Amino acid sequence: MSGGRFHYNQNRIEDIVIDIEVVVAENEKKEFPLSEKTIQEFKYAIRALRIAAAYAQRIDLLLSGDDGEDTFHERLKAEMVAMNAWHGTIDSRLPRGSRRVVRRAEDRV
Length: 109
Description:
The protein has 109 residues and is mainly alpha-helical. Helices cover 66% and strands 0% of the residues. It has four helices and no strands. Helix 1 (10-26) runs antiparallel to helix 2 (36-63) and helix 2 runs antiparallel to helix 3.
């Protein structure tokens, strides 16, 4: 698989996830840690970004001609199931647009 339609920028999403995970993991060690409320929002962001990265990757491979539509839907569903983000199981705290994308994908499958 090569992709390239998005110039591999979807990989930068995972870099952001890793940075946020480090902040969350090291929060208690800081002299002035972030509040639990803020850390919880960071955790929601990690989930939302992982879902976004998966969508970007699957769409990239489809639009680059590496995957066909059937493969796109199969692999997208497999990734969403693995993240417990398929068929309405996506966390309701995600931004409204994120929930809408998952619902739209469900409707087409």
